[in-house]
Amino acid sequence: MKKILFIATVESHILNFHIPFIQYFQNKGCEVHVATKLGNRRDELKKLGIVCYDIDFERSPYSFSNLKALNQLIKIMREDKYSLVHVHTPVGAFLGRLAAKITGTKPVIYTAHGFHFYKGASIKNWLIYYTMERLAAHWTDGLITMNDEDYNAAKRFKLRKSNAVFYVHGVGLDIDKYNISDKNERKQTRKAFGFGEKDIVILTVAELIPRKNYIQTIEAIKKLVNKDKNLYYLIVGTGELESKLKNYVLKNDLEKYIEFLGYRNNIPDLLNICDIFVLTSLHEGLPRCIMEAMAAGKPVVATDVRGNRDLVKDGTNGYLVPLDDVNATVDALQNLIESEDLRKKMGDEGRKIIQDYSIDKVLKEMDEIYRRLFI
């Protein structure tokens, strides 16, 4: 029986993005192993029949724990003799490819979910991550990207195989899961949250971390509520900035209009009750939350950065606004607030665009890549 190894720094990455691809190999009779830093969700992996290895990964490339992680990867590769290794996340991907190089394990496929070097990134990021990726490319048989900027950057790397840089439409989305069109259900759910039919509900689903740049949206909401008292902003997610952002909202007397919902697993329901989705990130790979909003038929306001611009076509299914430009964010949101017809038109366009990102289409794209490099 052929053995396949998936590597990612944290288990949530495997569970959130890679189960369909793991099952792809299981359906072909392969035994799938996962090497990651296991946490409180390890039982979810084991229930799927996946062999799990707990690796001492740290996200920081400077951590000495990653030397231990490298040795752990070398050990399991020598013991299990994998027919294919598929690596993800910067640190996990680098160490996985290095271990495969040391043990002579081939082929190795790397999916870049968003290079840490990008237009506008710090010099430090370019020095560390660009160097890592350029070096590890020599140990890579196939490199998969998800946005135009990364694809063009990857084509400059020298891989072990020629013409082995690929573009796929993300990790795939179960589009039907988000297509809730029952107006009565929307009305009842909004009522349960305390929203009336004339209220405008804006939503963000993202971690509360610096990269998501929530302040740009909050400042825009602050200006908008001075004009429209029937405007509400829901924030779904947890993270290191939670206390700081909540204090900022209180300090600016916005607690009536901005609500933090924490972690939620009913994202389709929340998308159903909202009118506009917003994401003002500093940078992205290919944001799943925007994909979900598009599948739900919601117009999107997003910053004009890598990843966002691959999904949002300015003036078609939403608006792209400059980074840190609060006034442009206000104007974009205002256009959508004032016109239900525009919201519907842009939402419908988003539904059309997102069809290319369905899990069925992405599985077909990945099948072609796997067949070329492995099967």
TrEMBL record:
The keyword Transferase applies. It comes from Thermoanaerobacterium thermosaccharolyticum. Transmembrane segments: none annotated. One of its GO terms (molecular function) is glycosyltransferase activity. SUPFAM superfamilies: UDP-Glycosyltransferase/glycogen phosphorylase. This is Glycosyltransferase family 1 protein. The keyword Transferase applies. Pfam families: Glyco_trans_4_2, Glycos_transf_1. InterPro entries: Glyco_trans_1 (IPR001296), Glyco_trans_4-like_N (IPR028098). Residues 186-352 form the Glycosyl transferase family domain. Keywords: Transferase. Residues 3-141 form the Glycosyltransferase subfamily 4-like N-terminal domain.
